Amino acid sequence: MMKPNLLLISVDQMRGDCLSILNHPVVDTPNLDQLARVGVLFRSAYSATPSCIPARAAMLTGMSQRSHGRIGYQDQVPWDYEHTLPSVLAASGYHTQCVGKMHVYPARSLCGFHNVVMHDGYLHHNRIRTANTAAEFYDSCDDYLPWLRERAGADCDLLDLGLDCNASTVARPWHLPEALHPTNWVVTQSIDFLRRRDPRKPFFLSMSFVRPHPPFDPPQAFLDMYADADFPSPAVGTWAQADDPDRCGLNPITNKGIVPRHRLKRAQAAYYALITHIDHQIGRFLQAMLEHDVLRNTVILFTSDHGEMLGDHHFFRKALPYEGSAKVPFILADPGGSLRLNRNTTNDQVVEIRDIMPTLLDAAGAAIPETVDGQSLLPLARGERVDWRNAIHGEHECKDMSNHYMTDGVLKYIWFSQSGREQLFDLSQDPQELINLADDERYRTSLENWRERLAAQLADREEGYSDGKRLNVGRPAQTLLKQALGASL
């Protein structure tokens, strides 16, 4: 019998709570809900480094940030990893294909895939005209734009809507036919792969969407679905800054500030609409898989690289340790039942993006390289008794808000390395992180324990954050670990 096909569906900047099966008060995700019903929904899934590049390094290599070396957002650093998910699967007899976002360097690096049909969205370093001509950008850094220009006119560009690629507070509807939207394009190209794949081999397809990452530009039909919705107010903790003296919220690409309520409401509507749009296009692809008779022999994993604060605690975008930014949706589905999962169940063990590679390799019966730090989720998903990790460590360089966090899915400890500020949240009682318990005497012992655990975690790091017992405040934050990346720098 042929090995199972593998489908990794990844989206960009989708919050972990934005699934209707999790009783979100507004967002509707019927197809993702159905995947959860034929699989397992992991409710405590995190991105250890919640921005695009480092999260995708974990996704492709199965490594922790200590091993893959990316602890902040920095473009144009070569990807020279010995083992990647597609390279191991290709060596195991799989036909491997990526459609959509890669966000690697060089942009055309295959990273082990047999082929990549790429759209990374708007990347500033690729668009600087002093370094790249327009022709070089279209020809070497993107496959969607030439496709779009052939159908909608030679002058079409990613900037036509006037929306910035990081503007999490500004929205407007897509201006062209829905079939030309980047979300539809990913599915159109993925369906074409089903036609062109080698039928003698199992396939691994990475279907990687740029949305719901900004620009917030859903097709009008999906925006209309949320026109009259009663949007929940963002979570604002008692610890959050109460005013906006620098008027940061009036900057459409800031990661903090208080924005006008009407603008925030439009942004929420567009963000949720983009998620539902993706959900419907996933439904389109599942139907195509039925028609190609591959659905029942395909294992499907759905996740995001990180979340979106969307106004929580007056923050936007990502790179922060809070649930809106660091927590991601995570579904392992098995429509055909070959993996013997406890289908239509949830699991609350703390999992991370680095667990994707070992999970899919385990499903394929392929050997897991020693470089992989993650763990296969199949035993958890089958309900087996497993000696699982007791916490994860996350971090991100973020200037004066550079941060580290640790969580076991119940408690979360946060340390801001530049100021020494600490936060402690009881997620079991306070999932929106409204109450900081760091100054609560009842939690002093717990706070000290978490601080010691983080100090041990950072003991031999090159930044000098810790001597193994105590945390050192004010050490310069880095975006990369030289010890891990070595010759790549």
TrEMBL record:
The Sulfatase N-terminal domain, residue ranges: 4-366
- Keyword Endoplasmic reticulum found: no
- EC no. given is 3.1.6.1
A single Pfam family it belongs to is Sulfatase
Q: Which GO terms describe its molecular function?
A: arylsulfatase activity
Q: Which domain of life is it from?
A: Bacteria
Q: Which UniProt keywords apply?
A: Hydrolase, Metal-binding
Q: Which InterPro entries match?
A: Alkaline_phosphatase_core_sf (IPR017850), Sulfatase_CS (IPR024607), Sulfatase_N (IPR000917)
Q: Which PANTHER family match?
A: IDURONATE 2-SULFATASE
Family indicated by similarity: Belongs to the sulfatase family.
Q: What is this protein called?
A: Arylsulfatase
